[in-house]
Amino acid sequence: MGVVMADQVESSDMAGELAGMRVLPTLTKRQAEVLTFLGRYFQAHRDYPTQREIADHFGVSQNAAALHLVALGKKNYVVRLPGERRNIRLTALALEKLRMIGEEVGAQMVFGF
Question: What's the pLDDT at 23?
Fold first, then answer.
């Protein structure tokens, strides 16, 4: 199945061409940066960052980092595992998106859900 980003769908003429293709939710520049950071962090550490580590990396408050994670969650790119430490997980959709934006994240990635 092919994948197309939502902002690539411009006209109803394309609708016929896109039959059978999944349209991935678009990301803001910062959301793409956070998603890329999550993927790279996992590759380097074989674990996911904490909200605090995300905030420190981007020089923002923990609340701002939380809002980015909520936005990524609404777009089904991340899930949070309640009651667990380091509870952020990338979804299969996130891996597709990372491949589209040029970030390869290993297939051996453990989703943890």
Answer: 82
